[in-house]
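Discussion board: Methods & Data

I've been asked by a reviewer to show the raw model output for two of the constructs in my manuscript, not just the figures. I'm not sure how much to include, so I'm pasting the format here to get opinions. Each protein appears as its amino acid sequence followed by a line of discrete structure tokens. Is this the kind of thing reviewers expect to see in a supplement, or should I convert it first? Here is construct A:
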Amino acid sequence: MHSDLTNHEIVVIAAFLEGAAREPADTEDIAIKANLIAPGRFTWRKYRNQINIETVRKRLWDARKKENGGYLVGSEREGWLLTAAGLAFAKRRKRFVQSETKERLSLNERRWLRTERKRLSSTTAYAKFKSGRASTISVREAEGFFRIDSYIWNQIRENKILRLSNAFGRDRDLGAVVRFVADMVRGGVPNGNKNNLCKESRQSRSAAKCSSVQD
């Protein structure tokens, strides 16, 4: 089931199953999951019942490299978080994973998703986007959408953006808003992309009007 997956791809899927789309996953937890997916791939040659954590750690760092897809960010200390590319890859290839390793959302994760959905839907950035005024969203409003500010920078900033992007980036209601605002806070939306995303905003507003008429 996993013969055509490389070791760094397996640890990416393991990270996904450990919830790395939403919050950083621990190296040891990923190691245990990777061993379930591909028994024997990450164990000592002499002691086949023991996981070689160093092998898993190396493959995690391999998965960070751009030439290997740039699927992860993080470290042993911070934990590992999936990038957008990593999330797309894991969802595309998780069919290779054994049934007993399917991703399950914990009660806390489900509660977080409900809370964040409600919060995001009440933000000014969301309201402006849905009303076709995406181009008027300010930097402060965009940062507030992700609960960041000018004092939160580097990897911590990116982790907050990734967590919400992974959770809601393909959501029917929130997806277009999340993608637009994420581009803003990452350094500005290129003109062409901004035009396209503003078009999505207008389409979203039109769809809402049509729905209202039908109702």
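Construct B, same format:
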Amino acid sequence: MSSPLTFHPQDAHFLDIFTHDIRSPLLGVYGCLSELEHVIEVLPDNDESKADLADIKAGLSRMESMLNGLLTISRRSRPGLRLAEVDMSAVLTAAIEQVQSESGPIDIEVTPLPTCRADLDAMVETFTHLLRNAARAGGPITVTGWRGERLHYTITDSGPGLSESMKRRCFELFAGDGSGDGIGLSLARHHVIRQHGWLRLRSLDRGGCQAEVSLPIREHGLKT
């Protein structure tokens, strides 16, 4: 299966140049806005001007996140898969450490997880994105896994669940609620698809959202 997030090497090189060239003037604009903030701060009746400036800064921040997202996807689409036996408990430990380094302690319970044969770096990044998403939604968070005809891993949060619009758009690029860069779920799905798996999100009747990753069971040495 060809992933929509896989770039041709020439396109990836173009994106590298494009994002670099766009980011440079953005830094200049940020500098100008900082000077404007100081000027507006001493003006009388400046509430409307401060609100306008905040809107401009929010728009620029969103643009920078989109550029960073395109660059990240471009770079992640290049390496080939390196399949190895992966300890999923270690993967979750690495993901938890990354998310906690960004946002502080999270309330999470991880049950024993079956190992899989997969790309270690891709799995760590996939579960970091999913765990980051769950942490934003709200804890406690539960991670489970089981082995059947395929391998299954779930991350369940205690947030409000998916809105109706997000049910249709959750894997689209930059379709988030503004709390992140809008690429995490798309990139996680990309990694899973490359390994012949699937990723789905669903709201639970009791509340919360559950992300489920399913991967094939591969014997050692089996080519993909």
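Answer (T.O., handling editor elsewhere):
This is acceptable in a supplement if you add a one-line summary per construct. For B, something like: The radius of gyration is 20 Å.
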